[in-house]
Amino acid sequence: MVSVISARKASLRNKEGKIVFQSPRKQSRKFAVLFLIAVLIVVGGILLEGLLVNLPGSSKSEFATERIGVIHVHTLASDGGGTVPEVMEAAEKANLSFVAITDHNVAMTANDLAADPPDLPIIAGEEFSTPSGHFLALGLPASWDQPKTKNARALLDAAHAAGAFTVLAHPFHPRTPWTDWKTSAFDGLEVWNEDSAWRQRNVLGLLDALLLYPVNEQLAMVRLASTPDTTFAKWDELLEQRPVAGICGADAHDKIRLGFGHSWRFPAYTASLNVAREHVLLDANAGQGDPSHATSTELLDALRHGHSFCALDGLYPASGFSFRVTSGGRSGGPGDSLSWTGAGHVQISVPSGASLPLIKLFRDGKEITEEQSWNVDTPIAGPGLYRTEVYLRQPGVSGWRMWTLWAFTNPVYLTPH
């Protein structure tokens, strides 16, 4: 009889030391209450953190030759949630100085480009969906005569013939990866893609960001950032063969499909345009001597030649970040080519207001230096392709102080004399 009771009831001792019995149902209810309390504490802690963590806002560059913009934005013309004017309004709030709109398989029209302000030019583009994957074509003329084909190579050739700068989009996306690596008919690689980044996060990371978003959308978007190690490896492999410009893409939609004809305007353009942004480094003669009025053509030319770096400005504004390689009295930044003269050094500088960064220096795809400092000045041993990656820690308790990719540069090409 005792064994039967023991199987069905749990024994506990009260304050008088007497054995009392508690049914499994009551125990389950108690555990459920404790679990609910724990969940509420965690949720409350995350919401409180969202209210307390204050990330610096984005601002325009203080440097005349640096233009900050966002590449890869969708509108109602394809699967985005807003109009071109809504995108431009969000771009102004985000202090951008250019934006590249790339709807799926739809060219921009002359009307779309009619209100193109000189200090915030629109780069007209398109994202092509092909059986081989997706690619961006930036700088297409309005309403261009697009070939009636889905063949990736034919479309790449046609886009080039129209003067476009072509970039493979989210090449390792879980649903639409690029598969035709035998072709070399592209100019750039989308190394960091916002949509691919959040898909690499685990369920807990996604829940953390969703809870943060209503109270601190900037912190929520920063939480979703991840390092594209596979894409970095592929980029380095491609760079061994030829110059390939590396960029970051917002892949902003302002819309998530919920099914059954319903959608959610999330995350908003204003949130997406404050995350990963392309910093274009222009010649002082751009814009007829005023780089702040450089045309979309001049911006595209700089992007095509790798004169840019990508930064997670939502974590900390990267305006003023510097990466320079010097040899024989000559110095160059991202995208530049120099001759090796027997000696040289690399200088990397991170804005002093940022938290202590982790700076990694790469030569021909291999890491050669790793240092926690705001400034690095290190000698180099010989010619090669030099680029850098910089990491900052996630703020707040739920960020676990994880190192997060903050910036990466296009390489400086240091060639044998």
Secondary structure blueprint with pairings:
Elements: H1 2-8, E1 10-13, E2 19-22, H2 24-52, E3 66-73, H3 84-93, E4 98-104, E5 122-130, E6 133-138, H4 152-161, E7 165-168, E8 188-193, H5 194-199, H6 203-212, H7 217-223, H8 229-239, E9 245-249, E10 256-259, E11 262-264, H9 269-272, E12 276-281, H10 296-304, E13 308-312, E14 322-327, E15 330-332, E16 337-340, E17 344-349, E18 358-363, E19 366-372, E20 375-379, E21 384-393, E22 403-409, E23 412-416
Parallel strand pairs: 3-4, 4-5, 7-8, 8-9, 16-23
Antiparallel strand pairs: 1-2, 3-12, 5-6, 6-7, 10-11, 12-13, 13-22, 14-15, 14-17, 17-20, 18-19, 18-21, 21-22, 21-23
How is this structure best described in words?
It is a single chain. This protein is an alpha+beta fold and 417 residues long. The protein has ten helices and 23 strands. The chain has helices spanning 2-8, 24-52, 84-93, 152-161, 194-199, 203-212, 217-223, 229-239, 269-272, 296-304; strands spanning 10-13, 19-22, 66-73, 98-104, 122-130, 133-138, 165-168, 188-193, 245-249, 256-259, 262-264, 276-281, 308-312, 322-327, 330-332, 337-340, 344-349, 358-363, 366-372, 375-379, 384-393, 403-409, 412-416. A hairpin with a 2-residue loop joins strand 5 and strand 6. The longest helix is centred in the N-terminal third of the chain and has 29 residues, at 24-52. The chain starts with a helix and ends with a strand.
